[in-house]
Amino acid sequence: MRTEAAQRVELIFTLLDVNGNGVIDSDDFDLMTDRVLKAASASHDDAKAAIRAAFRRYWTTLATELDTNGDGVINVEEFRPFVLDPQRFGPTITQFAQALSALGDPDKDGLIERSLFVRLMTAIGFDEANIHATFDALGPDAEDRITVATYAASIEAYYAPDMAGIPGDQLVAAPAV
Length: 177
What we know:
4 strands; globular; mainly alpha; two-stranded antiparallel ribbon
């Protein structure tokens, strides 16, 4: 696993531990889902249902694959090797990437404006300066928008263990002061 991918994994674990208790559990996914849906209040019901289903699948996949002792929680040691395993987690990430990117396109024009991208990514817990750097790295158009497909592909790349130098690496960079 590349160093950049390992850094991404550590950050994702921290963000998914929404309640800050040191492990990921189903409550964390409920809290995260609520925050993301609040940030996307103008999105269509079908997009909201899709992200809710994607978050549920994300948790179910983690719990099924990693919670071998049945305690209902995933610690960081269990999480690290699994989340960047395309064979085990790839379809779950694809669903998540498609749902989150669609949520960012409430008018269904195929484009995501910076302001909604920032709201969604802030709801997930990323640092705002890093969010803007990531959006810039995704190559917005003259009207400060990226395509839904670009956003989805960047999410999938974020979870790829062999990827480095990707826009998502901006999310783990030290925030600009």
